[in-house]
Design goal:
With about 325 residues, the protein is α/β, with parallel strands linked by helices. The protein has a single domain, classed as 3-Layer(aba) Sandwich (Rossmann fold). About 25% of the residues lie in helices and about 25% in strands. It has eleven helices and 14 strands. The strands form three sheets. Strands 3, 4, 5, 6, 9, 10, 11, 12, 13 and 14 form a ten-stranded mixed sheet that branches. A two-stranded antiparallel ribbon has the order 1-2. A two-stranded antiparallel ribbon has the order 7-8. Strand 4, helix 3 and strand 5 form a beta-alpha-beta unit. The longest helix is centred in the middle third of the chain and has 13 residues. It is globular and about 40 Å long.
């Protein structure tokens, strides 16, 4: 959808590794979700969420997306896709501050294999953009896979929209790729955050808006939930291969990071974040924006209501 078309319409708007105990997410197989395949026919998907552990980033994604019917479940031929990792920090991948570049590369490859016309990658970074894109390894990984890496540093690429139902973040300037692309894939990294407790899928949406400081100055947790009302990602792929357990969001040293070798994949942004909080070892009720998002009915907080596929590689 082009921006001119968009403006004329209203957009409605676990597993733990190593030294951390295994989380057995409650779930049941009887709840069946539905989705449309590339022909537009309604199919049945028996899983709402996939949690995979024990493999390399690319191979874990292969397994997880396969159990959801493959990327063609989400990407149709000739569609445009925006992949939004966390690329906020000028640090190397081993520090766990940014999304795993090998995961980003494999997601892009799956999108093109599904028939995507174009795949775009961007973030509104915290450190200097070109350094973040380079140091994270994501720029090279994305371009090697054929994606177009786009700037998130120019205000003219952001356009003001109204967020219906929001309590604090009632308007925001959102990057045009989110407004125009057919498919939105959110690829956060799970890590500690000094202000919000954790940064996962919902918090990663801060990188699609221009004025991030408004969030910090006007009830951060409410703004995190409010932004999720605008355009929910079609797919959330939570990177928990290397997890920063303290000193987030930037980190200080590699000692802050634990190798969990895990991923959580779901269409439900709240459920994904709840599962990731459990994976981290944090009680979801202690993360304020998760409770707010539940009250606003942004997604499912009670994982016992979901069908969860647990894969151990």
């Amino acid at each position: 959808m082009k921006r001119r078309d968009f403006i004329s319409k209203t957009f409605q708007a676990g597993f733990l590794a190593a030294s951390i105990p295994l989380i057995n997410f409650p779930g049941k197989i009887s709840r069946i979700g539905s989705f449309k395949n590339t022909s537009g026919k309604i199919l049945k998907n028996k899983y709402d969420l996939v949690a995979v552990k024990g493999g390399e980033a690319a191979e874990m994604f292969d397994k997880a997306i396969g159990s959801l019917g493959g990327m063609k479940t989400f990407v149709k031929k000739n569609q445009t896709v925006v992949v939004k990792p966390n690329i906020g920090w000028d640090v190397i991948p081993e520090k766990g501050a940014n999304t795993n570049p090998l995961l980003v590369k494999r997601i892009i490859e799956h999108c093109f294999n599904a028939g995507a016309k174009d795949v775009y990658v961007f973030d509104h970074t915290c450190d200097i953009q070109n350094k973040c894109y380079s140091s994270s390894g994501i720029e090279k990984a994305a371009t090697d896979a054929g994606a177009k890496v786009v700037s998130g540093a120019n205000e003219w690429n952001y356009h003001e929209v109204e967020i219906k139902g929001a309590k604090v973040l009632k308007k925001a300037k959102i990057h045009e790729l989110i407004l125009e692309s057919d498919v939105f894939i959110n690829v956060p990294i799970l890590k500690n955050h000094d202000a919000s407790g954790l940064t996962i899928s919902m918090k990663n949406l801060m990188g699609i808006v221009w004025d991030r400081w408004f969030w910090h100055q006007n009830d951060l947790h409410q703004c995190i939930a409010d932004c999720a009302l605008y355009r929910k990602p079609d797919l959330n792929v939570i990177d928990a291969y290397l997890v920063m357990m303290k000193n987030g969001p930037r980190g200080i040293s590699r000692e802050d990071v634990v190798e969990m070798k895990s991923q959580i994949i779901t269409t439900d942004i709240l459920a994904g974040d709840v599962a990731a909080a459990k994976l981290f070892g944090t009680e979801p009720d202690s993360i304020t924006y998760l409770t707010i998002a539940d009250e606003m009915k942004i997604g499912v907080k009670d994982l016992s209501k979901l069908s969860i596929n647990r894969i151990k590689m």
